[in-house]
Every structure is written in structure tokens, then in C-alpha cells.
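**Fold in C-alpha cells:**
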Amino acid sequence: MAENTTKPVILIIPGSFSHASHYYVLTDKLKELGYQTFVNALPSTSRDDPEEPVSLQEDAVFFRGIIEKLADRGHDVVVLMHSYGGQVGSEAVKDVGKEERQKAGKKGGVVKLIYLTAAVLEVGSSMKSESGDPPPGLVEISETGYMRIVGVELVAKAAFSDVEFHRAVDIVRTMPKHSSLSFAGELTYPGYKYIPASYIFCENDYLVVPDAQRKYIDRIKAATGKEVDVHTLSTGHAPNLSAPDKLAEVVVGIITGTASA
């Protein structure tokens, strides 16, 4: 049976320390609104000792592979990136934009990037060069290159400020380790410069604070020379958990051009 390719497929790239399951309610909401949606765990959160930590490039290659498979089936792809996922997505879309694929005689490809309170880095910069190592009271970095959350209640308050506190603590306690090597990886491809990008601004975010989000939006504007399509949510850092209905509506509105700012 031929796949339905009349609507773009949405691919979600999670934030750091996240399980794919943190986005399952959101994927269900997007599917209810008529959009085929996929989410996969970051390779950088999927390993532990004695395996080698994963780099940014390995994260990007993994998601680029998923995009290529969807595009080869004839799908246009919208990439929704959360937090650290913004850097992965910017890097992952090299050579898989729809325009590039069309020039190569291929079907499908990425038609839209949506940054959800996400990092937008310049070429040559990294999460580490941008923000330094995470505070030791929040995150412990092992000699083997893995980051582990140790400040459970503090992270719960910062990352999930609009989620019930006991639930937020439970979420943080189950969050996986994350490769510190990935945070040191430098961006080589500014996907936002070549593929239309929107930004979902979370005005009550205590982790990627509003000033940081504005800086990221300004970077897209500087790279493209155009005003950025920005949409605001009155949520904390993780509307995928605290307001999935509203987030899904905004995402679909961005895709269809019907979302209000």
C-alpha cells in the first residue's frame, strides 16, 4: 500500500538527558491532528560504560539517516528540535533539505525546522563553548565522559517548572546519562540558514532562559537576513510534558501557516 505523502512527516529530536518516551504524549496529539510523527532517543543518551560516549556528529548522522529513509519514501519532513536537539537538528539536515534533494533528482526532504526553546549555535561553536560545563551541583561528569544528573530537585524545578513537583522529580530520577563529548562537538552546518526555520519561545523557561532564546532567534535572523517566525508559549522548558495539547496546536499551525504569534 502506498504511503500518504500529502502532509509532511514530523520528526522530533529530543533534548539532553531525555527519553523518547518524554515525547510520546506529544506524538499522540500530533497524530490526532493528522500528522505522522516519529521520535527516537538520542544516541548520546543511549550508551553507558563500558561503551564509548557519542559525539554530536554521531547524533546528527543517526537522525540524518532517519530523514533520508522518510524522504526516500516520498515524504516531506518537518524537524522539531527541543533544547540540545537544536544543535543536532541543525547539523543533521545537511544534504537532506528538499531543495537539495530535488536538484539531485531525489524525492522528499526537509521542508521546515522548528526550534522548541532550542539551542541555535554558530558554526565552530558547541554547547560547551557556549555555556561551559554544567554546574557540578546539578550534573556530575565521570572520567569516562558521561554526565549524570545529581541535583535532582534543582533540575526538576528548572527543567519542569510547570509540572507538578513530585512528578517532575520522578521524571528527573529516571533521566538517562548523557555523553559529555556531544556537548563539546562543534557545529559545522547551520541548517537554519538554508531551510525555513520557526522558533517556539517558552517565556517561563528557567533552563534555556528567555534572553538565551532571544539570542538564538537573533542568530537565525542574522544568518538569513530575514525576520524569524516566532511563536510564544506561556510554559516552562518542557511543554511536551506540561502542555502537549497547546504545543501540538502550535506545531501544526506553523506547518499550515495558521498559527498566531
